[in-house]
Amino acid sequence: MDSTANELKEMAGIVLERLSDFLSQSQSGNTKVLIQRPPAEVADNLELEKFIRNGTLSAGNIDELLSKYLDNTQHLHHPQFIGHQAAAPHVASSISDMIHGVVNNPMAIYEMGPAAAVMEKVVINWMLEKVGWFGAEKLSETDPRKTGGGGILTHGGSMANLTAMLAARAKADPDAWTDGTSNDLVVMGPEVSHYSISRAISIMGMGSKAMVPIKVNEQEVLDPDNLYPVYNRLKEEGKRVMAVIANGCATSTGLYDPIEEVGQFCRENDLWYHVDGAHGAVALLSPKEKHLLKGVELADSLTWDAHKMLQTSALCAAVLVKDHKNLDNTFRQKGSYIFFEKEQLGIDSISNAIECTKSGLGTKLFWALAGEGEEGMKQFIEGRYNVTKDFYELIQAHPDFECPCYPESNILCFRYTKYGLDNSFQLALRNELVKRGDFYITTAVVNGERYLRLSVMNKHTAVENIQKLMDEVEGIAEELSKKGN
To answer: Could you tell me which InterPro entries the record lists for this protein (predicted)?
Structure first.
């Protein structure tokens, strides 16, 4: 069928009403967080093949299709969704997705999406300002000579980390773009660095062995004293360190590496310093919590995911650099239909991005900020960090529960200890919990031990929800112990 304005209005009205009901039901907590069914059953229930073959979607059946779709959907706005680090998006950010879906302006070239391109530039400047890498007077400044720092929004933190590693390579090995990466380059980082760092290095052709792990302590925080022995050994082996990584914060525990101490090491040795702040860079917005990132201005690059703690719908991740020239020098390509001599009215970001066709990612973050404002966003972040500490006190006070560490962010690990500390038992607890559908949590291995793991992303998650979680975990543990699991 051909799309028309009237059809859009009719179908969007039906969708909006159904989504509004879904959101209200999720936030009330009066539903399952997740009902998992086999893939084939879901496909048959949604009649996916029929729609693909016949193209029969219309205003007359869209409500039924969407209802079935939502019945097989995670409820991220549910107060008992405490699982992965995915935002319960601000409604304004959600609306931006609908706008982009209609106008469809891929904005890496300014003339293809002027408003979206400007929004991205302004929110990038806002993020640079929070890091301390913005030198202009107004966030609308587009002259990099005045802004100082630079950045780009990408489709996810993995893409952002890859871009940062490419920028580090361009600095350490300027001829790599044309001649290939030198085989003496390595990257140093905590042994618990996010897997996307190692993946990026392999994608770049350096091989996974080029990721040199730095030993962490029992809480999986990088110990700066372990940097020099590894660095000196690498120099003796004839290796060049392309970059040093620090976690701000770690995905498993939510704990921050000593950002300033690592930065001083990098400055002393003239090494590229990358802070993976995909989740925890939001602490920069809180006067109370920003000490966790003390020294971040010493870094050369920073990853910061808006789709985690900035109430922004996925995907929207920033890679920021202290010196804009380091991003400008990362990609060197020709494409006569894109890169050509022209009178430039606006700003093309395509030369700084992996993606050629890039969504208007800045609109997602802008609309969330426009809906919350800086103060609202600060209160949200501080609220989630504070309530996670309350959850720690509640869990730690119970004789049959324990936490491996005091939380520094909105991530908290714990385990049930009445029937021992067997890793497989903790995993069985989580699997049964998720199967029942009243809660959604994840797990993490910390220092070789399996823990249940919370990511408190939702402003509606309260102490009573965690008490219910503990009660359900106890009940499941009793049942599993009787079954001999």
So the answer is: Aromatic_deC, PyrdxlP-dep_de-COase, PyrdxlP-dep_Trfase, PyrdxlP-dep_Trfase_major
